[in-house]
């Protein structure tokens, strides 16, 4: 299961970002290129495990976008992108994003009270991005029906679960200077 994803991870190059060993992979970076077969394998799997009875798929810029696009084409469900820039629209919500290697801002638009949403993203590491997003969506009155992330590394998911956030992941990995390993 998820053979293409697992095989491709074993060849991912590693670069250092400060203290963080950053893996470079098609699904997490779009580099060197994303094969349609790999995207299909992943999104077919997501459709099987996720609650797809939602009004909207929510993708985090940038690398949630190919996932949401493929899922939207498969299911007919529209998607919204949580952007890294402001549109200054009424009701726009700003959240601060902190990952293991960067700090930034994310902007939520066009979510209204009662919307049923599915969040998709490529990687969860510290869990900082997802926890901030889920909290903000709930405060806007959205029902976060499911959260699915392709790759899990580090302690973010267990931290999220300890704090009452639910998240499904496809593959758990560890990363060091030698490369990516797949965990059971
Ligand atoms: O669990 P965390 O520590 O919060 O890290 C996870 C986030 O980091 C990456 O986003 P990044 O900001 O690098 O954006 P990108 O999608 O543009 O690569 C990834 O796509 C997640 O959104
Ligand atoms: O190591 C990583 N690589 C790509 N995307 C990521 N998002 C969080 N960590 C990573």
UniProtKB/TrEMBL annotation:
Residues annotated as domain Phosphoribosyltransferase: 50-171
Keyword Transmembrane: no
Biological-process GO terms, alphabetical: IMP salvage; purine ribonucleoside salvage
UniProt pathway annotation: Purine metabolism; IMP biosynthesis via salvage pathway; IMP from hypoxanthine: step 1/1
Any one GO MF annotation of this record: guanine phosphoribosyltransferase activity
Catalytic activity: IMP + diphosphate = hypoxanthine + 5-phospho-alpha-D-ribose 1-diphosphate; GMP + diphosphate = guanine + 5-phospho-alpha-D-ribose 1-diphosphate
Transmembrane helix in keyword set: no
Pfam families given in the database record: Pribosyltran
EC number: 2.4.2.8
Locations listed in the record: Cytoplasm
Keywords: Cytoplasm, Glycosyltransferase, Purine salvage, Transferase
Main location per the UniProt record: cytoplasm
SUPFAM superfamilies recorded: PRTase-like
GO cellular component: cytoplasm
Database matches in CDD domains: PRTases_typeI (cd06223)
Family to which the UniProt record says this protein belongs: Belongs to the purine/pyrimidine phosphoribosyltransferase family. Archaeal HPRT subfamily.
Function in brief: Catalyzes a salvage reaction resulting in the formation of IMP that is energically less costly than de novo synthesis.
Quaternary assembly: Homodimer.
Protein name: Hypoxanthine/guanine phosphoribosyltransferase
């Amino acid at each position: 299961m998820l053979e293409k994803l697992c095989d491709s991870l074993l060849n991912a190059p590693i670069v250092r970002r400060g203290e963080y060993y950053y893996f470079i992979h098609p699904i997490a970076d779009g580099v060197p290129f994303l094969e349609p077969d790999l995207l299909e394998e992943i999104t077919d799997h997501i459709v099987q495990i996720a609650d797809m009875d939602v009004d909207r798929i929510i993708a985090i810029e940038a690398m949630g976008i190919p996932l949401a696009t493929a899922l939207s084409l498969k299911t007919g469900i529209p998607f919204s992108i949580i952007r890294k820039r402001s549109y200054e629209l009424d009701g726009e919500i700003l959240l601060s994003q902190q990952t293991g290697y960067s700090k930034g801002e994310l902007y939520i638009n066009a979510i209204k009270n009662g919307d049923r949403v599915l969040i998709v993203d490529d990687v969860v590491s510290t869990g900082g991005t997802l926890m901030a997003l889920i909290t903000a969506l709930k405060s806007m009155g959205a029902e976060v029906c499911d959260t699915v992330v392709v790759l899990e590394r580090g302690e973010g998911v267990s931290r999220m679960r300890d704090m009452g956030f639910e998240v499904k992941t496809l593959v758990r990995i560890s990363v060091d200077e030698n490369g990516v390993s797949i965990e059971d």
